[in-house]
């Protein structure tokens, strides 16, 4: 675990987070600076800096993150109204934390992508 990774610190319990859901391999918690009424992050317990760093054997883990996001949407009550899930990768996408995370956004109309 890289010492400067804020999400590894959350996983280790060194930084608090408002947990929403967890599985053996994933953790979901409230985004500290929400961009929508529902804004939850789903992270793997394994430290992977970006989507570019995924190994072929990480496929099942990413699938588990998607299933966790689906469960988060259900728990937050946006599964029927609608939600968006996003991986930001590197600078032009605005990635700030280099431990992959799925944003789960919903609770109001989200507008076009861009
Ligand atoms: P990204 O720009 O895709 O790397 O997203 C990183 C997200 O992590 C941002 O939406 C931040 O608000 C969020 N974030 C950063 N630090 C924390 C933290 N300690 N607890 C919860 N969310 C955080």
The gist of it:
By secondary structure, the chain is an alpha+beta fold. The chain is built from two helices and five strands.
How would you describe the overall organization of this protein?
By secondary structure, this protein is of the alpha+beta class. The chain has one domain (6-106): 2-Layer Sandwich (HIT family, subunit A). 21% of the residues lie in helices and 22% in strands. The protein has helices at 6-11, 59-76, and strands at residues 19-22, 26-30, 38-44, 83-86, 102-106. Strands 1-2-3-5-4 form a five-stranded antiparallel β-sheet, covered by helices on one side. The radius of gyration is 14 Å and the shape is globular. The mean pLDDT is 97. It binds adenosine monophosphate.
Q: What is the overall pLDDT average?
A: 97
Ranges with pLDDT <50 over ≥5 residues? none
Domain count: the total is 1
Small molecules (ligands, ions, cofactors) in the structure: adenosine monophosphate
Q: Strand content of the residues, in percent? A: 15-25%
CATH superfamily: HIT-like
Structural class: alpha+beta
CATH fold annotation: HIT family, subunit A
- What is the CATH level 1 assignment? Alpha Beta
Measured as a percent range, the helix fraction is 10-25%
Measured distance between first and last alpha carbons: 33 Å
Task: Write down the secondary-structure element order.
Answer: HEEEHEE
> Biggest β-sheet, characterized?
5 strands, antiparallel
Q: How many strands? A: 5
């Amino acid at each position: 675990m890289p010492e400067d990774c804020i999400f590894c610190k959350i996983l280790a319990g060194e930084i608090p987070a408002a947990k929403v859901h967890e599985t053996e391999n994933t953790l979901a918690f409230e985004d500290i600076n929400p961009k929508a009424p529902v804004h939850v992050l789903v992270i793997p317990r394994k430290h992977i800096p970006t989507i570019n760093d995924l190994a072929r054997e990480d496929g099942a883990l990413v699938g588990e993150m998607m299933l966790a996001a689906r469960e988060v949407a259900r728990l937050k009550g946006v599964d029927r109204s609608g939600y968006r899930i996003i991986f930001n990768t590197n600078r032009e996408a605005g990635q700030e934390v280099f431990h992959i995370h799925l944003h789960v956004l919903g609770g109001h109309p989200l507008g076009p992508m861009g």
